[in-house]
Amino acid sequence: MSTLCVPSQVPSVAEDCEQLRKAFAGWGTNEGLIISILGHRNAAQRKLIRQVYAETYGEDLLKVLDKELTSDFERVVKLWTLDPAERDAFLANEAIKKWTSSNKVLVEIACARSPKELLLAREAYHACFKRSLEEDVAYHTSGDFRKLLVPLVSSYRYGGDDVNLTLAKTEAKLLHQKISEKAYSCDDIIRILTTRSKAQINATLNQYKNEFGSDINKNLKADPKDEFLALLRATIKCLVCPEQYFAKVLRLSINKLGTEEGALTRVVATRAEVDMKVIKDAYQKRSSVPLEQAIAKDTSGDYEKMLLTLIGHGPE
Amino acid sequence: MSTLCVPSQVPSVAEDCEQLRKAFAGWGTNEGLIISILGHRNAAQRKLIRQVYAETYGEDLLKVLDKELTSDFERVVKLWTLDPAERDAFLANEAIKKWTSSNKVLVEIACARSPKELLLAREAYHACFKRSLEEDVAYHTSGDFRKLLVPLVSSYRYGGDDVNLTLAKTEAKLLHQKISEKAYSCDDIIRILTTRSKAQINATLNQYKNEFGSDINKNLKADPKDEFLALLRATIKCLVCPEQYFAKVLRLSINKLGTEEGALTRVVATRAEVDMKVIKDAYQKRSSVPLEQAIAKDTSGDYEKMLLTLIGHGPE
């Protein structure tokens, strides 16, 4: 479900590094060459390129990109080049440092990754920041937000498909009861959403729909301006239908007066290699415009080229 | 700091398996032979023995031990034979199923292991029980106990030695303030104890002592019968001085009218390969009797032999 196009004949890592070195050399930077290389390599290949580049030229490729590129193009290339776990650690740290109650990045990292991927992000966080992810989240948040976010980022959910249907029924009722009481941040709702496996939560929410006739997220919209409710809805969507969640983030970021590059860049860089094909389908279905067309209309230059490359509609 | 004695010339795994098979054969079981093998092999060697035993005889060694051995001797041999991560998963599950507020096993597993070891225990828990550790803890506990235990078992603390002294001073003050207010289960106390690295917590507690002239655990003894306070004290001891914590558990379990085998067995099986030498020193210093002497006085038979073997005073 990745939209990344890796050529059938990939040049050697040494060649890739040499070409990148050329792209940075002299006056001006050859952005097209950078896109044609990094935009067509998978995570393992990019990791190797970074490693060999550092060994060959004694410089961290990330730092060189930092120096040579600017603005939105710089951000998408850098995010993309990072190893997925390191990228999550970086995005999480950024989100924590400038945390606002409307920020959904921590929820994405905690819920739209596999349990193992979240663990790798936490490991990368240790290595990059000499602290733990949950430590920083707990320190910089408070109240209901802390109550939800700390267990979310600390979770190591069971990853199997086993489902306990009796439990699903009981917990669907419990969720419904607590939501009816508007006890949105009660221990039970938090416990279920932060500890149960994705398969189990999916079963519970199906039971919820069967028994009470509506989607749980509809019932979590009592006050559309309530940021905590918005975070709960994002948690649920990232756990059970991440593609739809990300399609919506794209829709909102592109439809804004002036595209919101932050979200657009983040979603493309984090999902291209995961489920971007499905996200594109979901986007087109809901917006009646193909994603590549929407992006081409709202962005320009090398930034546009890199985004289109990553979603599978690059110049080559 | 391990008390395990592995002979300089270890027989091949196949030989060990053959000898074990012999020990189980016919009428009666040769307990001495079992002790002489399993009691003198490290975790990696025992793992290999289990693997080769299953391949050779088509039976899980653990199940055979279950069938052939009885009571306290059975339990210590089985706990010891388990891989450390699996053993922790097993002990944690047992503690959750028969959870009482005085049970400290979850705290031991969450705090007296390295961050990586706790992670491996959580992985083993997935594999053994098809659920996550934090999921079961959250489901089976409540109130203040849940508030402390869930983040404790979910933590993946930073494992480095880096310490922020300014933060240590601030958080020492914060802890003191909250303890003075008797707000023992407040968000701040829980956050600091469940997310900070062991090195950072150690620095904070040193600041606490310097600034306020007493050990934090002294101040957490307002009501000696309060089980939550006891759990907080155990948390702190397991984080900063696990050897003293375990020496005390041994002291209490041996001094009871009738030794409390549960705790004695658990401590010996989980610490023999870790820090039993230091625990023995701490025990002797405080009890004026060597641990081996206390164990020999209070236990008997094969159980006694196995315990003494694991703490380095076996028959051979």
Automatic annotation (TrEMBL), chains A, B:
* Entry keyword Isomerase: no
* Residues binding Ca(2+) 1, per UniProt: F24, G26, G28, E68, I254, K256, G258, A296, T299, E304
Give the keywords, sorted: Annexin, Calcium, Calcium/phospholipid-binding, Metal-binding, Repeat
Naming one, the record's GO cellular component terms include: plasma membrane
Tell me the residue numbers annotated for binding Ca(2+) 3: D298
Give GO terms: molecular function aspect only: calcium ion binding; calcium-dependent phospholipid binding; phosphatidylserine binding
Q: Which GO terms describe its biological process?
A: response to cold; response to heat; response to salt stress; response to water deprivation
Entry-linked InterPro entries: Annexin, Annexin_repeat, Annexin_repeat_CS, Annexin_sf, AnnexinD_plant
The domain of life is Eukaryota
Q: Which family does it belong to?
A: Belongs to the annexin family.
Give the domain note: A pair of annexin repeats may form one binding site for calcium and phospholipid.
What is the protein name stated in its UniProt record? Annexin
